[in-house]
TrEMBL record:
<dbReference type="GO" id="GO:0004527">
    <property type="term" value="F:exonuclease activity"/>
</dbReference>
<dbReference type="InterPro" id="IPR012677">
    <property type="entry name" value="Nucleotide-bd_a/b_plait_sf"/>
</dbReference>
<dbReference type="InterPro" id="IPR036397">
    <property type="entry name" value="RNaseH_sf"/>
</dbReference>
<dbReference type="InterPro" id="IPR012337">
    <property type="entry name" value="RNaseH-like_sf"/>
</dbReference>
<keyword id="KW-0540">Nuclease</keyword>
<dbReference type="Pfam" id="PF00076">
    <property type="entry name" value="RRM_1"/>
</dbReference>
<dbReference type="InterPro" id="IPR034922">
    <property type="entry name" value="REX1-like_exo"/>
</dbReference>
<dbReference type="Pfam" id="PF00929">
    <property type="entry name" value="RNase_T"/>
</dbReference>
<keyword id="KW-0269">Exonuclease</keyword>
<dbReference type="GO" id="GO:0003723">
    <property type="term" value="F:RNA binding"/>
</dbReference>
<feature type="domain" description="RRM">
    <location>
        <begin position="566"/>
        <end position="644"/>
    </location>
</feature>
<keyword id="KW-0378">Hydrolase</keyword>
<dbReference type="InterPro" id="IPR047021">
    <property type="entry name" value="REXO1/3/4-like"/>
</dbReference>
<dbReference type="InterPro" id="IPR000504">
    <property type="entry name" value="RRM_dom"/>
</dbReference>
<dbReference type="GO" id="GO:0005634">
    <property type="term" value="C:nucleus"/>
</dbReference>
<keyword id="KW-0694">RNA-binding</keyword>
<dbReference type="InterPro" id="IPR013520">
    <property type="entry name" value="Ribonucl_H"/>
</dbReference>
Length: 713
């Protein structure tokens, strides 16, 4: 689901199953876009990818489609929020391949194994020709004007530009004087919070060339604050309560403070200027100045330590210090200008970063080892290390993907990975960290005690049994010598029949009919209960079992499912009718978007029913009224709202044919108490559903969110 945006995809029939590769196509294009040579997915279309705020993948560890339908009623919010639903074709080691090869990298790997794209060239400090810094700036020292971004570079890196469509209402600093190598440098850094409007400034810091603080001001956001991002910004609600300063006040002060030939310095300064809604023509961006290959960027914290020998953004502090960050960026630019590209390249920053990551990995491994729950230990057959992985592709964005979960998802240090002990902790971290990351994987789990293989087998049996019961109806009583052919024909007008048997254990004969689609069974109950069939007034009902007591609730929820909105089921079609005949007949219906004619997956022949999807829900309601009573080639049509999306219809068909059940049921069953473990499981799933709701509601608009039930294979 793209929150408050548009993703177009096929929703009916055979197109409801996608492969792992197709999922990768979607995630890769959404995360990288055309600027990184990612292609539109072959099976769906994302509109305005450049406007996506981020990509969030929620993984429900070892849960499958089976869990979704066993706990369909408990997944209340998940069903209502996510409009597109697809069966994911099974594939080996799917979670591992999603999290990437980083999960297999051990501390003893060579540096090249960790950063093969960036460290292969830098093998000796004397051989600097392959260094991105030398390739960009050459070897000789130059003045500061050689390191300011050109207009094209500013455009490419999303800097506010005079006259750009996205910069309407932005204020110019009016620093339009010609720059020279002696123009003054000023360090700038802002802290932001997330509001209903987007990123808004909460603190602004400006330092001069000597590192003296000229401005360190709290700012009151214009819109309602959604997330203060306290862990990063250090800003709390209490701090902003007495603040009167607004963005317009800061804009005025900055204009007065900056001389007309000022050069602003910052780390990813485009974000600060966008939040300030200000345009400044001359900037040095230290995230680009210390160049890396393939568009990746060093973090300010790492550069401060590696180049200046300073520790900033310490974990002991609550949030970042904007003045400290502004001063660090300024000093980095001054170091680069004074020492020149060669001296900077000789620092061998890539190797220093690799060494730092290895140290982190060693520490993480020491912490994670007692857990014994890393993916490497779970899976017996790791994929080859040389194969490029999905998360590797994301490294070119220069941002670390965020991984949150109970498992040791990433042991390479290539991602922002956090280990939590409960789903509640994971949710809390996600609410804070997801808005700051372009790509996030959040893993929730029911816990090993609820995912044991014997419980999984029991769930499969229960879901299979319940679906069979929902597809089955009993009808009768009939006269002793009733005409089976006419009864089967009458009930066949509701939809395709899987099995038809006569119940003889009763005083008068009944029939047991198992349909192939849920809509057919429901139509039979609605249309033929109390009707006269084969000379008898009959009762039509589903099996009465403990599991079926909530059948009516389930049917109602399926009918209201967002995937079934605007979709109707039509039965009573003659098998001699072709798809062209149906298109011609139904074309007179307003806003018809798609016609799906189910086929027998073995014989390939179409069934005596079809599904119609309309662009508007009201058009589907009008079509229902119009179709009931229609005749096609002498056959009267019956219709109702759809109950089963394409992926569920296909799954039911497979379960029917794999189980070989013939629909024989005991009419009344002894009521059985739910086991304690299943009662607990329902509560856990309901809580998990609430976590997904909270996470989804916290996302910025235009965020692509994918929820995966990856199963165990």
């Amino acid at each position: 689901q793209v929150k408050s945006c548009h993703l177009s995809a096929a929703l009916l029939g055979e197109d409801s199953e996608i492969s792992q590769e197709q999922l990768y196509e979607l995630l890769k294009y959404a995360a990288l876009g055309k600027c990184h040579n990612a292609a539109q997915p072959s099976w769906c279309r994302v509109y305005h990818q450049s406007h996506l705020a981020g990509v969030v993948v929620v993984v429900l560890h070892e849960m499958s489609q089976l869990h979704f339908y066993r706990f369909y009623l408990q997944f209340k919010h998940l069903r209502r929020m996510f409009r597109h639903r697809f069966t994911l074709a099974p594939s080996a080691n799917f979670p591992l391949s999603l999290y990437g090869e980083g999960t297999n990298l051990k501390p003893q790997n060579t540096p090249q194994g960790l950063t093969s794209t960036s460290s292969e060239c830098i093998t000796k400090s004397s051989d600097l020709q392959c260094d991105p810094i030398i390739q960009r700036y050459g070897e000789k020292k130059q003045g500061l004007t050689s390191y300011t971004l050109t207009l094209e570079e500013q455009k490419k890196n999303d800097y506010p530009i005079e006259g750009s469509p996205g910069c309407k209402g932005y204020i110019s600093t009016e620093c339009d004087q010609q720059r020279t190598d002696s123009s003054p440098l000023f360090g700038l850094d802002c802290e932001m919070c997330l509001t209903a409007k987007g990123n808004e400034v909460t603190r602004v810091s400006l330092v001069d060339a000597r590192g003296q603080c000229l401005l360190n001001e709290l700012v009151k956001p214009e819109s309602t604050v959604v997330n203060y991002r306290t862990r990063f910004s250090g800003i709390t609600r209490k701090m902003l309560l007495p603040v009167k300063t607004r963005l317009s006040d800061i804009q005025t002060r900055l204009k007065k403070m900056l001389p007309h030939d000022a050069v602003l310095v910052g780390h990813s300064l485009n974000s600060d200027l966008q939040a300030l809604e200000m345009i400044h023509p001359s900037v040095i961006d230290t995230s680009l100045l210390f160049a890396r290959s393939e568009g990746r960027r060093f973090k300010l914290k790492f550069l401060a330590k590696a180049v200046l020998g300073k520790e900033i953004q310490c974990e002991q502090k609550l949030g970042h210090d904007a003045t400290e960050d502004a001063r660090a960026a300024l000093e980095l630019a001054q170091f680069f200008i004074e020492q020149g590209p060669t001296k900077v390249a000789e620092l061998n920053l890539e190797m220093l970063l690799t060494a730092e990551k290895l140290a982190e990995v060693s520490q993480n491994k020491a912490v994670l080892q007692p857990q014994g729950c890393g993916f490497q230990e779970q899976l017996n057959e790791p994929p080859p290390l040389s194969k490029p992985c999905f998360l590797d592709c994301l490294q070119v964005t220069g941002q670390k993907p965020l991984l949150l979960g109970r498992q040791g998802l990433d042991s390479s240090g290539l991602c922002q990975s956090n280990l939590s002990t409960s789903n509640k902790q994971i949710l809390q971290r996600a609410l804070e960290d997801v808005p700051l990351s372009k790509f996030s994987i959040i893993q929730f789990s029911l816990g090993p005690e609820y995912l044991a293989s014997h419980l999984h087998a029991g769930l499969h049996e229960k879901v299979s049994s319940k679906l069979t019961d929902m597809l089955t109806i009993y009808a009768g009583p009939f006269e002793e010598n009733f005409c089976m052919k006419s009864v089967k024909k009458e009930f066949g007008r509701c939809g395709p029949i899987q099995s038809f048997t006569v119940v003889t254990e009763t005083f008068q004969p009944y029939v047991c009919i198992q349909y192939e689609v849920l809509e057919a069974a429901q139509l039979a109950v609605e249309c033929l209960n109390g009707a006269e069939v084969a000379g008898s007034c009959i009762k039509v009902q589903r099996p009465v079992t403990a599991a079926m007591l909530d059948c009516n609730v389930l049917i109602k929820e399926l009918e209201l499912d967002v995937e079934n909105q605007g979709v109707i089921y039509v039965a009573g079609l003659k098998k001699s009718l072709t798809e062209t005949d149906l298109q011609e007949k139904f074309s007179q219906l307003k806003d018809l978007e798609t016609l799906f004619l189910p086929k027998d997956l073995q014989s390939g022949k179409h069934r005596n029913c079809c599904f119609l999807k309309f662009q508007k829900t009201q058009s589907a309601v009008d079509a229902l009224e119009a179709i009931n009573g229609w005749t096609m080639k002498g056959s009267e049509l019956r219709s109702r709202n759809a109950l089963a999306p394409g992926h569920l219809w296909k799954w039911i068909w497979q379960m029917n044919h794999s189980n070989g059940k013939q629909g024989k049921h005991i009419f009344y069953e002894k009521m059985e108490q739910l086991s304690d473990s299943e009662q607990d499981l329902r509560k856990k799933v309901k809580k998990l559903d609430q976590h997904i709701k909270k996470l989804y509601r916290s996302l910025q608009n235009n965020t692509l969110c994918v929820v995966l039930f990856p199963g165990v294979n």
